[in-house]
Amino acid sequence: MKTPLFEKAIGILDLASDTDYQVLDFGCGQGEFLHTLSGRIGPGSRLVGYDAMEKSIAIAQARYPNAEFICERFAEELPFPDASFDVFVTIDTLECIKNKKALLSEIHRILKPGGKILAMHWDWDTQTYNIPTRELARKAVTAFSDWKQPWMDEADGQMGRKLWGLFEGSGKFHGSPDAFCLIETEYEPGRYGYDRVQDLAGAVENGWLDEREYSQFRRELSTITERKEYSYSVTSFIYHGRRA
Ligand SMILES: C[S@@+](CC[C@H](N)C(=O)[O-])C[C@H]1O[C@@H](n2cnc3c(N)ncnc32)[C@H](O)[C@@H]1O
């Protein structure tokens, strides 16, 4: 589902296929990014995934036995020695982290001098749905963006646009901003935009959007799909650089 995003990340990282790297994916989910990366770098590389969700880590361990997965909820410290990684990656996780200052210090500590960092994050306010009632599109996007899902310690729908300031402003890393825009024209299960519309049911349960508005939103999406006018987009902001 996020393959184009992962490919963008791998392109930016620009790692050599004949070199072994120690790579940490913070908030690895079910391990798909590490799986996409494996086979593109040296066979002696160490791939480590770290995530708080037991279910996701169990799936990752079963699917990708060649990587290491650690189930832990980050609060203030990461369980790795100083200078133990060449590459630190985090995708769509930072908005959930309460103590971002502690995380940045820990990333700086566990990266080797000159080690690479790549952080990507959707900016949920950048979602666009091409439906006729523009106020409804805006309301649905804002409801999704502001909604703190039950598994999150914290939520920030505008995390994407804040990555540059967070990392570069810390003085611990030197890097560049980049962005990736996902565009879809199919409204069907498994598509990113379609699946987010299903997730939005949770925002309705939590009062961010009312049931009537949610029904109308889905009706209008079906109508533009029948007319072959459906389009969805969302932008991922990127910070990539090196440990200072
Ligand atoms: C939106 S998912 C992204 C997963 C994966 N990086 C991807 O792009 O598909 C965010 C992940 O962050 C993890 N997470 C959230 N808060 C965390 C914390 N405090 N410590 C560790 N993992 C956390 C969640 O369990 C979840 O798997």
If you had to describe this structure to a student in words, what would you say it looks like?
The chain is 38% helix and 27% strand. The longest helix has 16 residues, at 211-226. It has helices at 3-13, 32-37, 54-63, 100-110, 134-146, 159-170, 192-205, 211-226; strands spanning 22-26, 46-51, 68-71, 85-91, 111-129, 173-184, 232-243. With 244 residues, the protein is of the alpha/beta class. It has one domain (3-243): Vaccinia Virus protein VP39 (Rossmann fold). It binds S-adenosylmethionine (SAM). S-adenosylmethionine binds next to loops. The site of S-adenosylmethionine has 18 residues, from loops.
Please give a handful of descriptors for the protein shown.
244 residues, alpha/beta, Rossmann fold, 8 helices, 27% strand, binds S-adenosylmethionine
